[in-house]
Records
---
Amino acid sequence: MEKINKRQRQDRILARLTSTVAVRISTLAEEFGVTTETIRRDLDELAGRGLLARTYGGAAGRTLASEPGVKTRAQKLVAERHRIALQAASLVSPGDVIMIDAGSTTTHLAEVLMQNLIEVKVITNSLGAARLLGQSDTAEVMFCPGELRWTEEGVFGPETLGFLDRFHADLAFIGAGGFTAEEITDADASGAWIKRKMIARTERAVLIADHEKAGVTQFATVCGLLELDDFITDAPLSADLADAFARAGVNVQTAAQGRTGLAA
């Protein structure tokens, strides 16, 4: 039997829940060759991170269209998302026009860009990104019109899409609720429309997402891997995911932990 570590085991449990309604502790313990108590701890940990729902004797997948708001998501994996943001900011050159969509990781990117004092023009539907970069003397911010969704701290809808259609960008930074070897997905359909539009209007589409999104499929498809140019995450991908992104020609960067807690 193949010996795998805790993270690999948990990733496989989440991957299983993308194709089946529920899993049983006893079945998983037998499959992975570990005790039922080990699986129980795995499921409790994943449930605590909001990645699945615990049931009697096992677990069920989180509702495809259900996701906590931006403020709740922003409280998790803060250091990891900051490292991703630092790596992403290194792609931006002075004078670039960039698009930033609404999300927790993209807000981290806006904060880093504000601190870097880089001359940049930003088009965004994110209240957080606009608020942060609006304080910078070197960033010009264009905030999209649209329907306000306070839980997502952003604006969405036809007016937003129409506004984005008027511009081109050098880079677009988008987040996601999940990524697999086939596609990028999100829990919010209106948010997925914005991400797709930004990808269509940019020269270089950059996905920024933490390792907890690996193997997760959510309600709305954003795009296939072929539509991305770069992917920045905080931990190495599994072999199958790394191979899929490589075959799609996506430049994958891992924002590793450095001695100072910043991107190495």
---
Amino acid sequence: MSQVLKFTKVQELIYELPIERVMKKDVITVSPDTSMKELKEVLRINRISGVPVLEEGRLVGIISIEDLIKALENGDIQVPVREKMTTRPITVRENESVVEAVKKFAQYKVGRLLVVNHDGDLVGILTGGDITRGLLEAISLNYHVEEISRYRARHIFEDIVSEKTSLILRYKVKPKDFKSGGGASSRLKRALDRLGAHPEDIRRVAISAYEAEMNLVIHADKGGELIAEIEPEMVHLSVIDHGPGIPDVEKAMSPGFSTAPNWIRELGFGAGMGLGNIRKCSDSVNLESEVGLGTKLDIVIYLRQELSEESSQTRKSNGGPSA
């Protein structure tokens, strides 16, 4: 089995960012008839090391400071740019991802790439520095967007005034869908993280939700629903299915008991530890079931109040009430 590659955020952005997001759009150009002497002044004044060459708006080449140095060495300072330019510049399309530019920089060892549109018209210029700056800006933007989302989520209970405020999240769980199994608990875990719950509480909720979700996948013929009601002090999980029901609830709560068929056990599921793990991670568990009608599992996990104290300090620092 081949090893799965893990991408860093920078590598991910290299594949996601279009070149037009990082390129320079205000491009300084010269014409083929510009003299090498005039070119020297253009490069000096603008502090650049190369420019595209346009003739009647059409890209015909590129001229660099290296070309200028060679012209100076040969005494060709008065000759026109057309005699020293590279007539087949390396180009990239504006809608391509940055990774294509990175590949061409590595392949051709050039200092800049000309960016063209679908018709081949020049629309920008790209250097390695442009890519670095673009990536840093994108990372910074993504970070701030994530922090804003996290801040808003953490303060949701403070911004809504009511006798009782709760956030209800609902997740549908399909029967025998082992490929997607655990998806609901994973999304719930991320929601709690954004709300600022304590990491240990997040783990308790995530384990309980995962075990309950997998019970639905394994045992509920018609699937079911995992409902998470989140309050500042607690998380209440309701897991409902319309499956065959459990004949002996007390026995089902005992460690190691399972009605999972052999083929499910061979997949590594249905070992009978699910409800036991839920009991270890939760503050209260209630299981109700009726044969032929289905099962309802209620799980309560109380959240430690460190976040509330931290939130209170934040509100005071922002000029809001402390209680």
---
Amino acid sequence: MEQRTVDLMQKKLKRRYAAEWRFQWYGRISILIALAFLLLMFINIVGKGYSAFQQTHIRLAVELEADTFPSPTSDTAALYSADYSGLIKMALRKQFPDVTNRRDKRALYQLLSSGAGYNLRDRVVADPALIGQTIEVWLTADDDVDMYIKHSPRDNTGTEPTAERLSEKQRTWLEQLHSEGRIEKQFNSTFFSAGDSREPEQAGIWGALVGTFFTLLVTICLSFPIGVGAAIYLEEFAPKNKWTDLIEVNVNNLAAVPSIVFGLLGLAVFINFFGVPRSAPIAGGLVLTLMTLPVIIISSRAVLKAVPPSIREAALGIGASKVQMVFSHVVPLALPGMLTGTIIGMGRALGETAPLLMIGMMAFVVDIPANLFDSSTALPVQIYLWADSPERGFEERTSAAIMVLLAFLVVMNAAAVYLRKRFERKW
């Protein structure tokens, strides 16, 4: 009888150990699957976006005829009005003297970006002494040429999409320029220094970055003091009654409300009622403040609850008032968690698009915003707009902008970890 009982117990133990072993492996497999999908996502984004950090340029010998420029040439404002596009077209005709047909000339001019004249203009404005000389200058290539150079082999037969956008003559001209060393891929500084554009080769994220900075600045300046103050009051000072219970329930419910609802609220209240400028960082910051407040309040209350009661009792025992106890003892101990919750809330706000679309921050804005009330867009909205563009050149720029956005999120999460470790106190 005893032997049968021992055998039965051993069988149960084996089954229990086997179940624990399977559960551990289920967890490991789940983690591996999650990491595989995450790695696949990063590979896809980086694979499509890394080429956007380079831009194809074509080197031409441009003759800066003195008759083209105003006199005196020291007038910087007048230099901006010169016909730089005409000088570039003349340089292309000299580079390919056999191109005489009007249609072929138009195709030849299309090798360069419509903004190539800005490259030449900046060079001349920086050094007016170049006027009257023939200079070698690198000019931005058209987005179709850029895609062809980056992604098409030298023996392209015209079957790939990048080649279909260019005619046989255009590909022949490009091969001639390449053989002469006049085509080069350079770092795409425009991507980080320019605003949005209809042309992919001229589009940048600087305007969206500035708009995002202003929007997050408004958000953190409002959400942190209001959220932390509300959490301290609800946790430490508010009486426990049906009204505070109602407030707590609503705060918890607001944390689960879809973000587009906050966009509708901001459109109705801030823009239509209070008259806040549409598509401005101040409007975006106010909407994102409403969205991040529940997250900050809930996380701050959680860390306040985690402070041991002995800290409060010791402070009160030596004669401190309740206000002194809260702000001199409890809040300093809870501050690391509050900062962490705030940064996590800001990270969520950084990636939001739907509420910003509702308040008009999806507008096509070329100029860089100078203050909180200028029209602007945000980086997530810029990504959304580029992803919807038909030009193939925007595809790689969309992935590159996503890489920049992910880098910001990583920096913010790293800052949250650092602040938690920096201000954390042991008790």
---
Amino acid sequence: MRLAVCLGSACALALFLFTGCNQAKPASQPQPQQRVVPITSVIEKPLQATIDLPAELTPYEVVAIYPKVSGFLEWIGVDRGSRVKAGEPLIRLTAPELDAQRAQAQSQLQSAQAVLLAAKAKLASDEGTNLHLHTAAETPGVVAGNDLLVSDQAVKADQANVSAAERNVQAAQETLKSYTQIAQYLEVRAPFNGIITERNVHPGALVGPSVDSAQAVPMLRIQMLDHLRLVIPVPQADVSEVPNGGTVTFTVPAYPSQSFSGIVARNSHAIDQTTRTMPVELDVKNPDGRLTPGTYAQVHWPIHRSQPSLFVPRTAVMSNQVRTFVIRVADGKAEWVDVKTGVYQGDVVEVFGNLHSGDSIAVRGSDEIQSGTSVKAQTAALQH
């Protein structure tokens, strides 16, 4: 009986020890692995680049010639494509009624001058009589006082008549001058050296000033083609360093293998609210006439920054529907940093944001790596 009790106690003790050992040494859990992220450094360097911008060639000067007076087209000496020089006669009109008005104005001037001469002659006569009366009046009783008063008033009236006649002569002269100036409009001359690019009238046509200027058709259109303007809409992000006076090259579709150049001459200093661009003009010399106004050109616009720029690999920039960002890696943690992109240069792109030169960023951006995620950085080379 005692032997059975002893055996039972020994078994219980062994079971207790086995259970205790199992409870003292629980099984270890597997640890999650950190994601390996290839990283590179943000680099800082001066930006020297060009971007291709569309532009349009326009004449340096262009004038649409309209008739200033009504008349019949008597002669026209140019046609589309004619080269003209400043001051060269282009069109001659005839207006018989204008000649009659001018002759009438000449007659009125002569009549006014005759009236003026008569008024001056009467004034001179009355002034002489008045002088004799005043001389005679020095002797008491020779001239009545009323006669002196009448003579003085006659002189004053003559002086007023002379002044009125002088104003009439001046008015007649101005009228004749205006008709003479209008008669000069009957001959149209070239305002500058250029080429006739449009002709809409022929001899015998009746022309005259149009009431509706919006629908008026010019007789001729002349353009200056040996000197052109190249108008470039520069994006607002690239207007801070416009190279005034600098030389810029461009190409046109008609001569794809040839490069042309112009000088940056004018800057509007205002952003177009619709296109968010600023018009900049180049002066382009065109002595051989190879370049044609209205032609679209591709301009190689130089980009300069006053300060060095930050660059990252193109693949580092990630865009989704909400934001554009790169992933900065610091102390084993991923952080999304919002950026804006600038100029692309090979495999790298200019960025603007809360970044600094030397920051470690993921070589390939991905929204699968959330901000705050623990990552293991692996250095990669930045190609630039």
